[in-house]
Amino acid sequence: MIKSLTFKKNYICQKERLNVPNIKSAKKRTLIIEKKTAQNKMIKSEVRTEIKKFLAAVNSGDKETATSMFPGVCSLIDSAVSKGVYKKNTAANKKSGLAKKLNAMA
């Protein structure tokens, strides 16, 4: 029984060590990647939240609010593109879809 517990303990430790780099520059890169991933998630979350607010205004039929929110949402998407979070075509597709929904309200 004790032997099997030590085996499991060693196996878990070895499994955790597989993903940890030994080289200093690789360790630094993993830290940078984690930091950048967190930043990108934050930006994507902000864009998604603003899009949801815009779509809520569109679905409720409030054209004035939706019209005033549209430029802000587009600029937020464009800033995400400039930061490398979204690609240009993805942003264009998002903005196009939002514009279609806004124009369909009339």
Major sheet: none
The quaternary structure here is: single chain
User: What is the C-alpha radius of gyration, as a whole number of Å?
Assistant: 23 Å
Regions with little confidence, pLDDT below 50 for 5+ residues:
none
Mean pLDDT, as a whole number? 88
Derived from helix and strand composition plus strand pairing, the structural class reads mainly alpha
The count of strands amounts to 0
Q: How many DSSP H or I helices?
A: 4
Structure overview:
By secondary structure, this protein is mostly helical. Helices cover about 85% and strands about 0% of the residues. The protein is built from 4 helices and no strands. It has helices at about 1-15, 25-60, 65-80, 90-105. Helix 2 (about 25-60) packs antiparallel against helix 3. The radius of gyration is 23 Å and the shape is elongated.
Topology readout:
Layout: H1 2-17, H2 24-60, H3 63-82, H4 88-103
Helix pairs in contact: 2-3, 3-4
Key structural traits:
4 helices, mainly alpha, elongated, 106 residues, 84% helix
Short description:
This protein has 106 residues and is mainly α. 84% of the residues lie in helices and 0% in strands.
